[in-house]
Recover the amino acids of this structure.
């Protein structure tokens, strides 16, 4: 049986990334993918025979079993569709399940957070579901978000705003830390292009180590401190500073912004 998935806003950065992940990973044996946008065209997916594009959101809903909402949160209030018999998955920051139910008539709702890293299969996509979401629905959600990277089901909807802050931006806060390191190197007289190349490689390697190692981040930090080398000196200084509090405050500011976007 063909699985039909529709992406309202499927040409945006996040919607397009999810579409790319679905088409590359093919999590369903037989998939038809619908995309709706204002132009009714998606030339980036023209080579795929199983992709259909429309400017009519309701036409997409009627054609699909699973409907993704991936419009900018500021445009959500203009979205009025009848999706009462569909599984509706939202990846819109800050828009609550209650808001989604009111705008769509749906009761089988999944609210999720993902990122454009989905296009490379590197996104982290947590989600929370309403009571009406079935076990079959949950299986489909896991397949979709596993095609985009790693996924977890959450119990608390409010936690999604924190993941919007932590894992939604790519590279976001990580890029800021990298920028600080590049700026430091340049102040020491190192050529900017060399500093940037070195820091990019550091973050590439660090991300791979963090993903592959069984030790927690805290355990990896402690291991470096215990080694008592040059990195330990730097880490000890950072740990004793207010850096941790500053990072936490930044993440809380982003989460508060997500709460205000409805």
């Amino acid at each position: 049986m063909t699985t039909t998935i529709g992406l309202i806003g499927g040409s945006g950065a996040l919607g397009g990334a999810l579409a790319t992940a679905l088409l590359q990973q093919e999590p369903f044996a037989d998939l038809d993918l619908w995309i709706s946008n204002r132009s009714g065209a998606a030339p980036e997916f023209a080579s795929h025979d199983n992709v259909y594009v429309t400017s009519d959101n309701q036409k997409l809903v009627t054609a699909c079993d699973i409907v993704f909402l991936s419009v900018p949160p500021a445009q959500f209030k203009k979205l009025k569709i009848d999706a009462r018999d569909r599984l509706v998955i939202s990846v819109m920051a800050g828009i609550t399940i209650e808001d989604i139910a009111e705008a769509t008539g749906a009761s089988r709702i999944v609210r999720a957070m993902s990122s454009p890293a989905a296009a490379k299969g590197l996104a982290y996509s947590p989600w929370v579901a309403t009571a009406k979401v079935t076990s079959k629905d949950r299986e489909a959600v896991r397949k979709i978000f596993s095609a985009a990277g790693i996924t977890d089901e959450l119990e608390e909807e409010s936690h999604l705003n924190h993941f919007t802050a932590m894992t939604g931006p790519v590279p976001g806060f990580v890029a800021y830390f990298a920028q600080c390191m590049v700026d430091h190197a340049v102040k020491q007289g190192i050529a900017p292009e060399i500093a940037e190349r070195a820091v990019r490689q550091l973050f590439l390697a660090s991300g791979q180590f963090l993903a592959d190692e069984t030790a927690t981040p805290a355990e990896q930090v402690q291991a470096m401190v215990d080694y008592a080398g040059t990195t330990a000196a730097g880490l000890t200084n950072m740990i004793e500073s207010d850096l941790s509090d500053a990072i936490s405050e930044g993440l809380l500011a982003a989460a508060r912004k997500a709460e205000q976007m409805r």
